[in-house]
Amino acid sequence: MPDFTMLPDLALRPLGGAVIWANDELFAEKENLIRPGPSVYQPATFGHKGQIYDGWETRRRREDGVDEAVVRLGVAGVIHGVVVDTAWFKGNFPPEVSVEGIVVDGYPDPADIAARTDWTTLVPRSKVYGDTRNPFDVASDKRWTHVKLTMYPDGGVARFRVHGEGRPDPRLLGAGPLDLAALENGAMVTDCSNRFYSSPQNLLFPGVAKVMGDGWETARRRDGANDWVQVKLAGAGTIRLAEIDTSYFVGNSPGAAALRGKTEAGEWIDLLDRTTLRADTRHRFLVDDAVPVTDVRLDIYPDGGLARLRLFGTLTDAAFAEIERRWR
Q1: Cα 220 to Cα 228: distance, rounded to the nearest angstrom
Q2: Which domain CATH number covers 308?
Q3: Residue 246 structural domain
Q4: Are residues 220 and 155 in the same domain?
Q5: Virtual CA dihedral for 162, 186, 266, 303, nearest 10 degrees?
């Protein structure tokens, strides 16, 4: 699978993504496309409309045309690649698909969005294979708010993943306290030591975790070292409050954590000394250092799981100006 799959899935339901429109979903609901986790299947489970599939499936076409679904991204941003996953669809997958993008301001009627004629092609009409994760690179540095998946002519898709980087609306960044580590504000995990149980990108998701699987959890360490995660912030900024949340991690939370920041000059500085953590707890720590940082590294000792990481602060004037420039 290409490297772009290590980037956040901007369409995921837990990020606020939604499948807002489809011209057909007779056999299986469109909402399944953006559910977290892989598609599941149990043979010989029949409902009134046939075999039950964990995906989006349309009826067999008897006339010319295509089937389409429109996804509102949970986090608007730059798309680096998509995955059209046809898991379990073996005799009923679409032979070809395409993907388009559009920028929509506000919340117009979904049918009006689908009917617009200014969609931009991100993935041209391309062959796909059944029961397969079909990856496609996207060569565009523009920001998108919605994507449209088209099947030629019909069939079923289990999951639709839209990987990229969040690019926020600068009009929203000055409206209140800013989480510099929020994915929806443009932050992103760039590296980590281990992702055995779950993705570290979960740390930056909006809202509170609902179960242990909503967070980031590493394998058990046996080598005397420790696990860590590195985050590129929404922009250079001064962190005033750090929240390290171990909610739902009861017997597998880290014993301690430390936080460092990377200055604009490239120097790493201590933001939070190694501090004991408690299980199933939202920890909030004041950060005294007023030096702006662009990235942070959170070390956990020795291993374990975290639900969320919040870093509240203020963007520098230069960082805000750069966000506005990219917006334009």
Answers
A1: 13
A2: 2.60.120.260
A3: 170-327
A4: no
A5: -70
